[in-house]
Design goal:
The complex is a heterodimer.
Chain A: H1 2-21, H2 25-45, H3 49-70, H4 84-105, H5 123-135, H6 140-148, H7 150-171, H8 174-188
Helix pairs in contact in A: 1-2, 2-3, 5-6, 6-7
Chain B: H1 2-19, H2 23-44, H3 61-67, H4 71-102
Helix pairs in contact in B: 1-2, 2-4
The chains are: A mainly alpha, B mainly alpha.
Chain lengths: 189, 115
């Protein structure tokens, strides 16, 4: 189980490195797809079927959006990274963040021993023991997102709606006409 | 070990965001970071020999509470994945608009920030 997850994570890290480093944008997007489906399989092994299904759907949509953004555009590979000095500084900063992250993990509970098993008043215990009686939902994930934390879900729907609205407003074709109109108005003055 | 690999995945995404010049590459780095964080949160809730947090008809609640994995991070990650989709759509829309305005995905070419 742990070895299987480790192999899967190695696969995802390799896919992510190829996605970041390759020159061709289309193959880079396909590598992101490989990482996303790997995450979905990992969710299945971690006993989270709801998230695995959602991850597959979202992954397909992300691939469609990204391919729509890059296909039929001038995808000439941008050669060269940034200047040598800024590259060195950013890589050093990344190393520092990595080391601090490893230090933080020492204070976390061990893998396969979640914190709610040792804390008797964790909210998860209430959800597991009384979720079926209080909400009537056999799937506890559903009972949490639609009953115990329904306001969270409402806020999520608001954020999603706002993001889609922003994307549509940015992509709208009429906006360019209005800017040309206003520039003409300025030239008239 | 598994947490460290998850952190490596996050650092690969952060490396892409910090060092790449292509806007689509930056979006890809943010997507990879999002995957790493979601996976880490679900990893925190996993229990040894756990079962999915869905109650069968036959099992009693007491026995179920000894076995089930943590449903709380799963519920919150579920909302985070969907929010991530909306944010990615917004970022890609901004990339397309920048491409139409400047004719390139290269961020060092985008000097004219007049709006």
């Amino acid at each position: 189980m742990v070895t299987l997850l480790t192999v899967l994570l190695f696969f995802m890290v390799v896919g992510a490195i190829i996605a970041v480093e390759t020159k061709d944008l289309l193959s880079s997007i396909i590598c992101v797809g490989a990482v996303g489906f790997g995450v979905s399989i990992a969710f299945l092994f971690l006993r989270a079927p709801d998230i695995a299904i959602t991850q597959v759907v979202v992954e397909v949509l992300v691939l469609v959006i990204l391919i729509r953004a890059t296909i039929s555009r001038d995808v000439t590979a941008i050669s060269g990274d940034r200047e040598f000095f800024s590259m060195t500084v950013s890589i050093a900063l990344l190393l520092v963040i990595f080391i601090f992250g490893l230090e933080v993990f020492k204070s976390f509970p061990q893998f396969r021993e979640p914190v709610f098993t040792t804390m008797s008043d964790a909210s998860t215990n209430t959800y597991i023991q009384r979720g079926l009686i209080q909400t009537g939902a056999a799937n506890l994930v559903t009972s949490i997102i639609l009953d115990y934390r329904a306001y969270d879900t409402l806020g999520e729907a608001t954020v999603l709606f706002t993001a889609i609205l922003g994307a549509l407003a940015i992509l709208r074709a009429k906006a360019r006409k209005r800017t040309t109109d206003s520039s003409e108005g300025n030239s008239d003055q | 070990m598994i947490y460290a690999l998850c952190l490596v995945l996050f650092m690969v995404g952060l490396y892409g965001v910090v060092t790449k010049k292509n806007t689509v590459k930056i979006v890809i780095g943010i997507i990879i970071m999002e995957y790493a964080v979601n996976l880490f949160l679900v990893l925190l809730g996993y229990r040894k020999d756990g079962v999915a947090p869905i109650i069968d008809e036959g099992t009693s609640v007491l026995k179920f509470s000894q076995l089930a994995v943590d449903p709380l991070p799963q519920a919150l990650v579920l909302t985070a994945i969907v929010i991530g989709l909306g944010v990615i759509a917004l970022m890609v829309a901004i990339c397309i608009r920048l491409y139409e305005r400047y004719g390139t995905f290269d961020i060092t070419e985008m000097r004219r920030l007049k709006g």
